[in-house]
């Protein structure tokens, strides 16, 4: 059990990579705090974990709302005493070439993908600093480094998460808090299914073109990212700090 007894908060864990990670963390002995803004999906993740004999609790909150996030974190601390691992996973897409996008779209994407990381981390960090221990995983994307057609606001947001991660690592290393970024390639989740429908007249052709970007020859699965998250959350990775951690089937390298 690589995460035995660890209290792990995963934002946006009602779907996709977040849900898969929540299930894996529980299999490794963690007490999983499932957060999402979609109560039905979040509760489904909890039900899946409990049906496997794991321990999980659902907290509905939008990561862009500081009051709700602070109340959630205060309650987790009151009930469980601490947060050992924070996985800032919640994120939304932002489709379009720069000149086609609207300001409101940029504001929405940056608000969730970047400012959401700030809001949740700000609420959790004082508790980790007090205990001088913690692992934070921020969800970036290989798009931060290699770009992708028609996703200007999204690429900008994930680049910001990568820089923020490095800056956080420098600031919180003295408190023995590790901060790493995950950079997945294209992972087959509802998020990517929506992207294929929105961006391609023929989603099948879109799927083939995304596949062609991967040296692995296929898209990733949520469990591929979940495995990497287990490593970063666990004490196996105590010497991994401020890293861009690629789980991209070779998309960045290729
Ligand atoms: P998904 O859409 O399947 O899941 C995202 C979850 O986040 C949903 O349950 C959604 O309700 C929740 N969420 C959205 N906004 C929220 C908010 N403001 N507050 C709380 N919860 C919120 O997506 P996914 O593919 O699993 O993506 C998860 C993360 O991984 C995202 O940050 C995404 O950018 C990143 N990512 C995905 C891929 C991929 O190919 N799927 C690749 C690289 C990075």
From TrEMBL:
> Superkingdom, according to UniProt?
Bacteria
Which organism's genome codes for this protein?
Cohnella faecalis
Q: Which family does it belong to?
A: Belongs to the short-chain dehydrogenases/reductases (SDR) family.
Write down what this protein is called: SDR family oxidoreductase
- Record's keyword terms, sorted: Oxidoreductase
A GO biological process of this protein is: bile acid metabolic process
The yes or no answer to whether the keyword Glycosyltransferase is present is: no
GO molecular function terms attached to this record: oxidoreductase activity, acting on the CH-OH group of donors, NAD or NADP as acceptor
One Pfam family this sequence matches: adh_short_C2
């Amino acid at each position: 059990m690589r995460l035995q007894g660890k209290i792990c908060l995963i934002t946006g864990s009602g779907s996709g990579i977040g849900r898969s990670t929540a299930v894996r963390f529980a299999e490794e002995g963690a007490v999983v705090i499932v957060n999402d803004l979609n109560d039905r999906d979040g509760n489904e993740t909890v039900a899946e974990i409990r049906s496997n004999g794991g321990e999980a609790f659902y907290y509905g909150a939008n990561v862009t709302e500081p009051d709700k996030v602070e109340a959630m974190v205060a309650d987790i601390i009151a009930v469980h005493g601490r947060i050992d691992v924070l996985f800032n996973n919640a994120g939304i897409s932002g489709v379009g070439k720069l000149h086609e996008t609207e300001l409101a779209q940029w504001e929405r994407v940056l608000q969730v993908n970047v400012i959401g990381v700030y809001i949740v981390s700000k609420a959790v960090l004082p508790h980790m600093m007090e205990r001088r221990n913690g692992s934070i995983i921020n969800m970036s994307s290989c798009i931060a480094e290699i770009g992708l057609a028609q996703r200007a606001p999204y690429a900008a947001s994930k680049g910001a998460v990568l820089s923020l991660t490095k800056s956080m690592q420098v600031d919180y290393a003295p408190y023995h808090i590790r901060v790493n970024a995950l950079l997945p390639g294209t992972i087959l989740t509802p998020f990517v299914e929506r992207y294929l429908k929105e961006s391609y007249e023929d989603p099948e052709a879109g799927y083939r073109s995304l596949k062609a970007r991967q040296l692995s020859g296929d898209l990733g699965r949520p469990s591929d990212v979940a495995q990497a998250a287990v490593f970063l959350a666990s004490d196996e990775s105590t010497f991994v700090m401020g890293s861009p951690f690629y789980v991209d089937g070779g998309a960045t390298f290729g």
